[in-house]
Fold each of these.
Amino acid sequence: MRIEYDIKLGFKDVMIRPKRSTLKSRSEVNLEREFKFLHSPVVWRGIPIMAANMDTVGTFMMAQALSEKNLFTAIHKHYSMADWSVFLSNLPQGAENNIAVSTGTSLTDSKKLAKVFEINPNLKFICIDVANGYSEHFAHFVKQTRELYPEKVIIAGNVVTGEMVEELLLSGADIVKVGIGPGSVCTTRVKTGVGYPQLSAIIECADAAHGLGGQIISDGGCTSPGDIAKAFGAGADFVMLGGMLAGHDESGGEMIEKNGKPFRKFYGMSSSTAMEKHVGGVADYRASEGKTVEVAYKGPVEGTLQDILGGLRSTCTYVGASRLKELTKRTTFIRVNEQENRVYDS
Ligand code: 5GP
C-alpha cells in the first residue's frame, strides 16, 4: 500500500482569477475550435461540448438540436438498427460531422458498429466507452478498432491518469475520455472507493495527451456553466455533459408528473434502471453503479445551451481570451474554501 499526499482538486476547490483584458464584449469571443487528430485524417471544427452517450441524454433528437449550433453528441449505444436507418435516412445536413457512434467492447457491439457504418460510411466518430478503461482487453479492443477503421476518429475511455491516456493513444485512440466517478448519477466512488477528483484528472491527463498530440474529453461532474469553463481552463479539449442536458424535450427518459409539475427520468447507464431496460437486470456478480433520479422538466435544450455558451463567453472575457483555444493559457486557478452565496437558496 502507498499513499500519495499531493492534494487532488475538483471543480469546487477552485475559481478562475480574472485578468486584465482588451475584450469589449462577450460577442467578440469565438468558442469554435479546429482539431486535427493523432491518427485520423479528419479535421473537426465546432464548439467542443458534447452530450453524453446516455439514453436519457445522447439521443437522435439531441444530436439534431446540438448539431444546429455546431455542438457534438455521442449517441447512446442502445438504438436498434431500424432506429439508426430512420435517423440516417433523414440525417440533417452536417450532423454526420457532429455525432459519434458509441460501442462497448463485446462482439455484438462491434458487429452493430460495422452495420451502422455500412448504412452511412461518412460518419466519422467512434466512441468506445467502458466504465473501467484500465483493462488490457480494452486497450486491445481499441487497437483492433483502429486497424478496422484507420480513417475514423476514435474516442476511448474512461480513465483518469496520464499513463493510461498514453497507452490508449498509442493503441490507436485519437481522443481519450477522462473521468471516473464524478458523474451526477454515478455511484462508483461509493460502491468501490475508486475515483479521482475531476479537475486534477483533467490537468494530468491533458498534459499526457497533448505531449503525444492527442486530445481529451472531460467527462462528468459539471453542474454549471462555471464548471465547464473550469474544465476547459484546466486543459480539456472537449467537455461532455450528462445531467446538465437531461430533462429537456430532446433528452430521453420517461415524463412524469408530480404535484402537478413535470419531471423527466434520468439514470446512470450502470443503474439498475438501465440494466433492467437493456440487459434484462443486474447480473448476480455485480452491483449497480448508477442512480435513478427525476429532474425537473427544462423545456427545449436551446435555452440551456444559451446559458452555457453565454457563461463560457463571459469566462473568456474575464481572463482576456478572445478564443476558447486561449482559455487554458490564460487560466490561473485559485484554491478556495467557498463558492457561491446560497443565502436565498430554498
Ligand atoms: P454528468 O455530466 O451527469 O455529471 O456525468 C455524465 C457522465 O457520467 C457520463 O458521460 C458517464 O461517463 C458517467 N455515467 C453515466 N452513467 C453512469 C453510471 O451509471 N455509473 C457511473 N459510474 N458513471 C456513469
Amino acid sequence: MSGVRTRFAPSPTGFLHIGGARTALYNWAYARRHGGALVLRLEDTDRERSTREAEQAVLEGLAWLGLDWDEGPLRQTQRAERHREVVEELLARDRAYRCTCTREELEARKEATIAAGGKWTYDGRCREAAHGRECGPHTVRLRVPAAGLLGWDDAVFGASGQDASEIGDAIIRRSDGQPLYHLAVVVDDLDMGITDVIRGTDHHNNTPLQIALYRALDAEPPRFAHVPLIVGAGGKKLSKRLDDVSVQQFRAQGYLPDAMRNWLVRIGWSHGDQEVFSRDEIAALFDLGSVNRSSSQADPEKLAWLNQHYIREMPRDALVAALLPFLEREVGHAVEATPDLAALVDLLRERSKTLVEMAERAVWLVVGNLAYDEKAARKHLTEAAGPILKDLHDGLAELDSWDGAGMERVFDSVRAAHGDVGMGKLAQPVRVAVTGSSASPGIYETLEVLGKPRSLSRLAEALHFIKHGG
Ligand code: GLU
C-alpha cells in the first residue's frame, strides 16, 4: 500500500449532489490508482442543517455507485473535543489570540475603511492585547503573517495562492466556543494523515487560510487538487429546480450505476478519446493531471448513450434483477424473475435508454389483466380486424411448436386468406391484443415470450373487446 490517503468530506445537509458524487469518485479513483486509502468523513458541524437522512443519502449514493471507502464514516462532530484542544494549543503557543471586538465594532471599522477607499481585513486591534481567558465574550483569531505568499502547487490549477496580507487574522473559534470550519478541516485532515485533498473549486479560496493554519501547526500541508464545478447546458449553474442534480434522481429514473459512474468521471476528465470506462479502468487510469481547468458541462444525452451501452452489455440475470424494482413500481405488485421475463429483457435491452423505459415496455408480460392503450385500441382493434384476428387465433391454436417459423406460416396463410393484407394490418392488431400497445419487439418474438396459452387467451379477449367493447 502506498502512502496516498484521500478523503471525501461531504456536509450531510441534503441529497448527494452529482458534483459531490464526482468529487467522491475522483478521490476514490486516485486512492485506488495509487494503492492508497479513501477516508469518508461526514462534516456535520452545521447542526441545524445536517440530518441523518442526508447522511444515509450520501452512504447509499456512494454504495450504489460502487465507491467503497477504507475508513469511516467518521463524523466531524465527534471530534469537537480535539478541535477545541487544538485551538487551546494555538493560544498557548501564541499562534492565535483572543479578540474581544464586537460585531458592531467590526462592522463600523469595516465601513469606515471601505468608505476611505481601503480594503478590509481584520485590523489587528486585539493582536497585541494579550487578552486572557477571563476577558469576557471573545472569538479566537489565527495570527496570520502580515505578508508573504500562502501558496501551493495545485494538481489541477498549478501555482496558486494569495498574499497573507489579503487574508488577515481569521476567526478560528466563535464567541460561543465553536471552532470554525477551516480549523476542523485542517485538524481532521492532519490527524487522518490525508496526503491529497481533492475537492471542488468552490474551496479554492479557502486554501490560503488553511495553509496558514498548517503552518501555525508546524505541519506540512497536503497536496491540493481543485476540480472545476459541473455546470448545465450552456454553461449555466445547475439549478435544483430545473435540473436533475442528485444521484438519487438519476437512480430513480433508471440509470445504471456503471453508466452514472462512467458519465461522472468523464465530466471534467479525459483519457485520450476513450468514452467507456469500467470501474476497474477508472481505478487504473484516473489521474489528476488530465482534469480540465474549466467548468464542465453535464450532458444528459451522453448519459443516455452510456446507459444504453451498459444496458446492452449487462449480464442478463443482473439486468433482470436491476429491472425488477422498476417493474414492480410500474405494476404495483411483486414480480418474479421468470425465464420469460429474462427473454423479454433480452429483446428490450437493444431499445431501452433507461430501466424506467424498459419497465414500461415489459408491463404487458407481467400483468394478469391487460389494459389497452386507448388510442391503439381505437385504431387497431376495429370491427374490420375481427375476422382476421379470429382466423389467426384459430390458426395459432393448431400450432404444435410455439416458435417463429410456425407462427410465420400461420400469419402468411391468414393474410393470404384475407386478400393478401399487408403484415402491418395483421401484426398491429395482434400487438395491441397481446401487449396493449402498438409498440413492441418483433411480433413473433413477442408471442413466443408470452407463451401459447396466454397469447391465445389475449387474442380471445381482444375478439371479445371488438365485439362487445371494453
Ligand atoms: N464539507 C465540505 C463540503 O461539503 C468539503 C470540505 C473539503 O473538502 O475540504 O463542501
